[in-house]
Amino acid sequence: MISPADAFIARAQARPSAPFLIAPASAELAYAQGGFAYSYGEVLSRVDTLRRIFSEAGYGRGSRVAVVLENRPEFFWVWLALNRLGVAIHPINTELQSTDLVHQFAIVEPELAIAWPEHHQLIHAAHPTLAIIKPDEKPPRSNRPAAAGTPEADDPCAFLFTSGTTGKPKCCVLSNEYFLGVGRWYISQGGMAAVKDGAEVLLTPLPMFHMNALACSTVAMILNGGAIVPLDRFHARRWWRSVADSGATIVHYLGVMPAVLLKLDQELAERAHRLKFGFGSGVDARHHEVFERRFGFPLIEGWAMTETGGGGVTSTAQGPRHIGQRCMGRPTESMEYRIIDDGGAVVALGQPGELLVRTRGANPRKGFFSGYLKDEAATREAWAGDWFHTGDVVRSDGESLYFVDRKKNIVRRSGENIAVIEVEGVLDTLPAIAGAAVAPVPDDLRGEEVMALIKLRGTTANDAQAAQKLAREIAQACAERLAYFKVPGYVAFVDTLPVTATQKLQRTETRAMAARLVGSPDTVDLRDFKATLRQRDRARAR
Questions:
Q1: What CA–CA distance (Å, rounded) separates 5 from 79?
Q2: Contact at 8 Å (CB) between 252 and 201?
Q3: Residue 444 to residue 23: CA distance in whole angstroms
Q4: Distance between CA 513 and CA 527 in Å, rounded?
């Protein structure tokens, strides 16, 4: 078994009538009002048809295709058909702006985009000469000769972008073996996350352009012979009806979701489910126990990064769970780790430090990403000393790991990694701004929110009304160049910024300053305004 497509074909041939893709009518999907249900055999038929069409057009091993198909059924048969041929996909976040895509396309260099019509304008704005087709259209002839031979385990399967500390997101090259490794790890967790072959239904509201949904959810269910319920996104008001009506036995979540669900009034549907467990990360320590008690199933917390895949991963499925202590769980037996201080020395047991991970044995990178595309320097830096440097600060009790903080300059908002330097780069180009510093601040629903400390150039915000108006103008300007979720949710106008003698931002002081000011009456809260930006973008897409 070389690829996810191989695994799917084996399952489809063994049990063609088994359900693979499910969505109940209660999910109220705009593109499938009555829901949908596709068996392994039905999807295999579509995969085979698309494989032949793309093969005849010259696509094969080494080709690269951008995909903007959201979580709709078409995504799955397009991906599996291309994967069968050795074509790597570049799944795109539909919340991005054209400037984000210009950067991504320059790195991936896709030769074709497959997208729904409402996304064609976005793609064309970023890459005017890129051929774009709908999922039911025949592709143009490939302009690149396919590589010789059949697909191999270490061939690229997908290119996923992740934020770092250098501003622009980096492109992770993820191989076929990476995907299979994540899936194998998931179904072998055991304990409270034990799965039964051919009997699971996994519901996820998470997007297929992220590693969690694409590798954990999808490949795990393929290997398990289970079904996937790919919702378009998290809808709190109809969540429990979707869970119950789909027959889901597993749900995937982000930390924001338990917080939102706990705020809802009790309803009969919240206990009318078959759930064995939920799997995710970042549940608020204050919510964990009360959530499990109210809704009747455990939340299994895990840790991984796009870069670490199944090579560096933890889970609370087995052993003590330490609820309310931000426990990340136990490392796998194949994962080796160190916790180091700023000088590179291993810290004492129980002390916090940066987490370094690798795979035991002769190949420390087995199961990890293949590297950052077109950025060998960043790949070398991440793997300094043959250890992958995660940028996460954790502590250990000798058995389990506990999350403490992030060393990297990112904001973790509703599962999205946002590089503060990227937001600062946009703010610094605005005429009214003399300097800007961005930092994460806690948010009860989103985990963290983006806060901008802004020093104005010439102009001033003399009163609350003027500050509110100017902050909205700044947010609006940011939204023209950044995805809505990266736009500052808070703005504080300051006289000075915390900088070093060489005028570099002091990140520790920036975070402390943001923490002090976030509750200040002088700070402008833009979170509701961000919500209107999101609604506007979605209305435009429709």
A1: 9
A2: no
A3: 30
A4: 19
Helix, strand, coil share (%) of the chain residues, nearest 5: 35, 25, 40
Q: What is the pLDDT of residue 373?
A: 98
The three-state DSSP-derived secondary structure of 480-512 is CCCCHHHCCCEEEECCCCCECCCCCECHHHHHH
Query: How do the domains of the chain map onto residue ranges?
Result: 4-297, 298-408, 411-541
Q: How far apart are CA 356 and CA 353, in angstroms?
A: 9
For the four alpha carbons of 104, 110, 116 and 121, in that order, the dihedral sign comes to positive
- Give the residue among 48, 45, 98 at the shortest CA–CA distance from 68: 98
Per residue in 390-411, is it b (16+ CB within 10 Å) or e — as a string? bbbbbbbeeebbbbbebbbbbb
What's residue 428's pLDDT? 85
What is the reported pLDDT for 486?
93
Has residue 414 got a pLDDT over 90? no
CATH class belonging to 4-297 = alpha beta
Name the strand (E) or helix (H) holding 412: strand 410-413
Between CA 314 and CA 177 the distance in angstroms is 19
Reported as a single tens digit per residue, the pLDDT across 420-475 is 888 988 898 898 998 899 999 999 888 899 999 999 987 667 788 888 999 999 99
Torsion angle, alpha carbons of 278, 284, 287, 293, to 10: 30
Kindly provide the residue ranges of all beta strands, DSSP E only, lying in 46-192, ordered along the sequence: 64-68, 88-91, 112-115, 132-133, 156-162, 170-175
Give this prediction's pTM.
Answer: 0.86
Non-local CB neighbours of 199 within 8 Å, separated by 6+ positions: 226, 249
- Write down the CATH superfamily of domain 298-408: Luciferase; Domain 3 (2.30.38.10)
Beta strand 371-372 with 19-23: parallel, antiparallel or unpaired?
unpaired
Residue with the two structure tokens 């600060």 = 393
Q: What is the pLDDT of residues 129-180, one digit of tens each?
A: 999 999 999 999 998 888 888 899 999 999 999 864 445 789 999 999 999 9
Does the CA dihedral 54-60-63-65 come out positive or negative? Answer: positive
Residues 214-235: what's their mean pLDDT? 97
Structure tokens at 203: 């519901």
User: Going by DSSP bridges, is the β-strand pair 36-39/433-443 parallel, antiparallel, or unpaired?
Assistant: unpaired
Q: Which CATH architecture has domain 411-541?
A: 2-Layer Sandwich (3.30)
